[in-house]
Amino acid sequence: MKAVPLVLTGFGHVGRAFFSLLREKREDLERRYGLALEVLAVGRAEGCFYAGGPLDARQISQAGEPWTSGNPAWHAGLKVTDAIDRHGGRGGCLVECTLSDLETGEPGLSYVSAALRAGWHAVVASKGALVVGLPDLRALATGNGVALKYSGATAAALPTLDVGLFSLAGARVEGIQGILNGTTNYILTRMGEGLDYAEALKEAQDKGIAEPDPAHDVEGWDTACKILLITNACLGTDYALKDVHVAGITGLAADLVRSARREGRSVKLLATAAPGRTKGRWTLDVRPSLIDPSHPLAQVNGTEKGITFLTDSMGSVTVTGGRSNPRGAAAAMLKDIINIFRPAF
Amino acid sequence: MKAVPLVLTGFGHVGRAFFSLLREKREDLERRYGLALEVLAVGRAEGCFYAGGPLDARQISQAGEPWTSGNPAWHAGLKVTDAIDRHGGRGGCLVECTLSDLETGEPGLSYVSAALRAGWHAVVASKGALVVGLPDLRALATGNGVALKYSGATAAALPTLDVGLFSLAGARVEGIQGILNGTTNYILTRMGEGLDYAEALKEAQDKGIAEPDPAHDVEGWDTACKILLITNACLGTDYALKDVHVAGITGLAADLVRSARREGRSVKLLATAAPGRTKGRWTLDVRPSLIDPSHPLAQVNGTEKGITFLTDSMGSVTVTGGRSNPRGAAAAMLKDIINIFRPAF
Question: Whole-angstrom Cα distance, residue B236 to residue A77?
């Protein structure tokens, strides 16, 4: 049995789902992979939960709220790096699931950098940290001989990076197309069924699918971050968010979606990465697109996501599905951890 | 740069495509993965091509035929194990692409066993060897600390094992459904377009999609082998081919396919693995099935293949596509080799 120390940053929906999943999967992880994953610290901006041994969810929150006052496991002012230092050795894994800013990458960027510098692997769900810092973080990971994985930031339970990097190893990726955001796909699916934009958005918000402030999703930025990260990983490139042409679905005319449907087609917020006109440069864009029923992503409806890779030697490979909720995201992060530490198979 | 010695058994369509692909990808493999793959021997029943260094395709065949008589690289009577022994060290990789018998597993089974015993990894396309010998081969691989991979035998360029074992690591697979044979799917697709069974089969044979003797495909055995291997790998079980209930598409009534189509549905040769009525035992079957247009595999037409995994924590994940030809199969074997030898990522 290999004991793997984890430090978790961010204790929102995904962080909590990760904690529950770890508990649920404990025996299975030991039996199938020989891994004992133990959360040693949970970091927040103001301090850390830390008790010198594996933490239980009850030491962190009570009634769904973080429990700091009077909690012996809460150490105000203790930093994530301190917790890592106190543990001593290299070779643990940071599980980063804060909501990081897309301009600065913080707070995730600092957490991830510090962990990699300390010789810890990092499994990251925070898009901000990656969009801002990926080239530097990759170099840090390589320099320190540790892994940096981010399925949680690239459509989570829908395998995207895995397929591009592992299942298509040796093939040259010649184009990528994806429906990468469940919220906008839900809204567009419902618009195809007769709702107008405002109604579909309201319904998505009422169901907890869309955020109260849906801008990040409906304006296309979430999709843009994902296609950027996937493209850079699969091609080994360093495109920046500003290189992605982004048009969202805000206020999309219901007529357009309905008339597409009458013609047997559908409107999807499609992310595309393809070789551009300038030699060696790719074009990355996100925009509402009409697709035919024979398109491999045509049946991706509701909150589902999907991605198609075009390759030179394996043809076109499409992956669809994967649960779009915190449990799915937590499962994607757990998957990355297993794939860092498992024995060869 | 890591030099990886390979020994190839079988030099039919897939073996030749593998050779070409290696040459085409040489620079790319060095640059992207730091790997220099070198074919040291090509084994046949009667002897080996072996020249004490990396072989070139011209040393093996001329005008598309194996070149033995008068060929200084041909050694009648030399065994694959001799070639491995002559190389010396452990840690090379056998690339097994013979057509092995489904009853005995030979000749592949002997090649793979010998390679694993010699401390060589094995990448296997031969279904016979795996269907007959998988439990023993797995034990041999584990005991010798080497990898046994077989994407080439499990739908090739369509990632099936990768997704089940890597992309879904940590999730519990609760059901598998697949369209796993391109030939039968082509015939059924053309029947949906109006041909009767005999016409569709003839067309597939004329196009080189179906074999002159199509029994292995149309009677469902190829599909049965694949669902068996995928299920055993993902669940860690040891079901045998006799545990799979198999019904093929031989002589399927054209009326049935056409009337399904009129109702907006389609007929597919579906392989299913699902928990059975006996606790702990799964039911594996292969049979022509009617599927609705909303089924995740409904758009898998022509020679395409597809697979759906149902899981506890990641929802349902479907993969479709992947080139169904010798180049696609060769690319799948190359992918397995890369994933055995590449640096951590």
Answer: 47
Q: State yes or no: pLDDT of A11 exceeds 80.
A: yes
Instruction: Give the model's pLDDT for residue A204.
Output: 97
Catalytic residue among A226, A268, A305, A335: A226
Mean of pLDDT values over A169-181: 98
Best residue of A29, A148, A167, A335 to probe chain B, by most B CBs closer than 10 Å: A167
Q: Which ipTM was obtained for this model? A: 0.96
Domain co-membership, A108 together with A247: no
Do A185 and A129 have their domain in common? Answer: no
Pairwise CA distance, residues A144 & A132, whole Å: 20
Q: Do A339 and B168 touch (CB under 8 A)?
A: no
pLDDT at residue B279 tops 90: no
Cα–chain center distance at B262: 34
B292: containing domain = 161-320
A339: nearest CB among B29, B166, B171: B166
* DSSP class of B165: I
With a cut of 80, say whether residue B218 has pLDDT above it.
yes
What single-letter amino acid sits at B161? L
Q: Are residues A85 and A140 in the same domain?
A: yes
> Do residues B219 and B246 lie in contact, with contact meaning Cβ atoms separated by under 8 Å?
yes
Task: Enumerate the H helices of chain A as residue ranges.
Answer: 13-33, 80-87, 108-117, 127-144, 161-162, 182-192, 197-206, 215-218, 221-235, 254-262, 326-341
Interface contact flag, A321 B296, Cβ < 8 Å = yes
| Residue B298 confidence class, pLDDT cut points 50, 70, 90 | very high
- The CATH code of the domain that includes B129 is 3.40.50.720
How far apart CA B333 and CA B158 sit, in angstroms, is 12
User: Do A90 and A186 belong together in one domain?
Assistant: no
Measured distance CA(B6)–CA(B17) in Å, rounded: 15
Q: Is the pLDDT of residue A126 over 90?
A: yes
The pLDDT tens digits of the residues spanning B227-247 come to 999 999 999 999 999 999 999
* B168 and B153 co-located in one domain: no
- In this structure, are residues A326 and A17 in contact, taking their beta carbons and an 8 Å threshold? yes
